[in-house]
């Protein structure tokens, strides 16, 4: 296909996916494609998928149907985790023209050039063991905040998770490459960089999954990375998107506590407050370690915002085990939760665990924890009432309003003022 000139994107899932979509978009624009909104009619639609839950799979299928109704002659390209895990299933969706696995998503232009609309769906994929390269990616849709991918893949074997099958082995950029990206983003006007990865704290393995020392001649790890980033001029704020509790060492916590640029904000996956369930999930810590990390953070930074990932309805989660999770989170000094309802994923160990929690009960538990999360965030915000904190306001004018976040991740909404866009303002809460 040589005439295609317009392209529209839709991203499902995590911040890492957003950074990759943004990089693919820039790559296609350099090749002569004009970017359109996903609601517009375009020659090519690219959907970057997630497959963490069943909902992400369903949403992908719904999006393809919507494109079929709106623009039946347009090319539909599916990439991302769902595309790597179930390429045949996606290729069977009416309207899909091209399925790109993990190794091919950044070769998208070459594949599109060879496509015709009425051919059978083409699958370009490979075994995940063959995926070894690292592609630097970052989002610059909004100059204010950018998601910078510094790590990809995961060597963990959590019993509920398909990510290692979709993303491959843990691998990273070099520190020098990350610093170069950060300087480039500073030059483009970005004020805040959110560091993203699949298992961010495992940073330090080279593109082939081996220690980066083999390439750079020096050992690299996440602690060394943040020390170097702290010196980059022009970036006012860094955030750590999500980091496993067993990889969040005291030296990282203490560094953030003393840094001017790294914000007092952590997002730390818990998944369950029951040690029995954590064991069944094959997590690499117990709740006592998690509580210790939270306690250390709050001792050094009482104002720090702490987000939590938690899964409800995992197989074997009795009422008593769920109550353990609820009580643990209730007493823990954290600020908000991302609550996920467990959904069965093919080829995962969790499928063999009994008893299965009925779906209505899973949904009920999700609602209970979301209510607790709401109360936690209300309490966290009230604790800072009357304080003056620095807010970075975003560029968007939403119906005459603008939004921004304090250093410790409290969202602020105020009437739009152009002169405040992409500026850090002292704000009384």
From TrEMBL:
Keyword GTP-binding found: no
NCBIfam families named in the record: MiaB-like-C, MiaB/RimO family radical SAM methylthiotransferase
Coiled-coil portions: none
All residue ranges annotated as the MTTase N-terminal domain in the record: 5-117
Entry protein name: Threonylcarbamoyladenosine tRNA methylthiotransferase MtaB
GO cellular component, one term: cytosol
Record domain Radical SAM core: where: 140-381
MF term (GO), any: 4 iron, 4 sulfur cluster binding
